[in-house]
Every structure is written in C-alpha cells, then in structure tokens.
Amino acid sequence: MRNKPLQVILFALLAIVFFLWLFVPFAMALLWSLVDPDKPWSYPDLFPQKLSFRRWGDMWLTTSLPAAIGNSYLLAPVVAFLTLLLAAPTAYAFGRIPFRGKAVAQMLSLLPLVLPSFIIALFFTSLLYKLGIYNKFAGIVLGHVVLFLPYAIRILTVSFSQVRQDLIDAARDLGASPWARFSAAYLPVLRPGILAALIIVFIQSIEEFAIAFVLGSPDFTTVPTILYSYLGYNFVRPNAAVVSLVLVVPNVILMLVFERLLKSEGAAVSGGKG
Predict the structure, then answer these.
(1) Which residue, among 157, 135, 146, 161, has the nearest Cα to 83 in the 3D structure?
(2) Which residues of 219-247 are buried (b: 16+ CB within 10 A; e: fewer)?
(3) Domain ranges across the chain
(4) What is the pLDDT of residues 71-116, one digit of tens each?
(5) CA dist., res. 273 & res. 268, Å (int)
(6) What CATH code is assigned to 64-273?
C-alpha cells in the first residue's frame, strides 16, 4: 500500500507518454490524410473544414502507390525467408557450439547494424554492377538480407541456447531420426523465435528506405521511397499522411498478430509441449 501513490504516478506518466508519442501523431496523420483537396487545412482552423477520401483515391489512381505496395509486400516475405535461412546455421553455432572467439564472432555479426544503410546501399550498388547483376529486385533483396541478418541471428541464437540438451539426448537414446529429434526437442522452443525473426525482418524490409532508394530508383519503387518523396523537396503533407498510414497500419496489425502468436506459443512451451 505504501507504493500505491508511486504506481499511480508512474501509470499516469506512462499514459501521457503513450498519448503524446503514439495517439497524437497517428490522429494527426489520419486527419491530414482526410483533408479535402478543395478545402486546405491552415491556420487559424483547429480542424479541417471538410473531410473526404478524395486524397486516398487520387493517390491510388494518379501515383505509383499500388505498384509500390506490391513491390514492398513482394520483397518483404522473400527477404524474411532468406534471412531466416541464412541466419539459422550461424545462430545454431552461437547458441549450441562452444568455440574459441565466439564473443568476437558474435560482435562481428552485428556490424551491419553499425554501418549506415546508405553506405551499405552504395557498396552493394558498386559490387552488383561489377558482378554484372542489374536486376533491381535481386539487388534490394540481397542488400536487405545482409542488413537484417543481425536481427535474425541474435533472436535465433537465444532460441537455440534455450533448447534442453536432456530432451535431445532422450530422443537420440530412443532411436529418433534427426528430423524427429528436431521436431521433438528443437522446434517447440524455436517456433517463437522463428516467428519473431520473420515478423521483425518482414517489417524492417517494408520500412527500409536507403537500399530500396539507391538500388531501385527510379524504376523500382517501394512505399518508403514514395513517402520520402513527399517529405523531401516536393513536400505535400496530406499525401505524405496517406502514404505513412499505408505504411504504418499494416505493420501495426502484423505486430498485434505477432504478439498474439507469441503468447500462444509461449503458453504451449511452458505447458510442457516443448
């Protein structure tokens, strides 16, 4: 009871931060996206004079937004799958195999997070051209995989380290095949990590701008490249609000689904199925 006033204060501060950091920007973006083109929203109006979905229709019909959405949601699953596939062996070594220099190797695997994404984009552009690879989709996929490998490696390393050795030994002693041992001992523990890595890399790929811009422009557009064009020299706030909502809302839905899946997987593992 002594700490109850402190808890109330902390909860109130958290609510204020949540309101200012999440609700207000989202509400402003929604209002700006609904401003009617014939009735601009300007001072001293507190709210737009007229709301309509004309801006959404104009953006869909007169810009490359549909193609950009298709490109973004084609890139993201390919990048997520390849990143997970390439990260798994390294994560297994970091999580299950003791070897000299492991700490140094783990630190080196995080280097793509240190380098600015524009530096990686310029490097890949030069490298791909020297190799004679001019396919923009393949170049962006390769750049995204390298850029987001550290996330998948880190998440899967933790998952691999939590697999119980006694379950692996018991399955081996019972004569289980390698796939049966993996299904019984590894998969139940790895599944939440796999889901987390897939969703995080998926969302990061959709939101990435530098590599998609340097390697893809002007022919291959994604949602972030269109958004930054409206935030740059050709600043149009209502159009930028529409594109930002197109970019943010699906990701929020994915994160909610991801959270729900993680809770169900965690319950399954803690319930003894792992």
Answers:
(1) 146
(2) ebbbbbbbbebbeeeeeebbbbbbbbbbb
(3) 64-273
(4) 999 999 999 999 999 999 999 999 888 888 888 998 888 888 888 8
(5) 6
(6) 1.10.3720.10
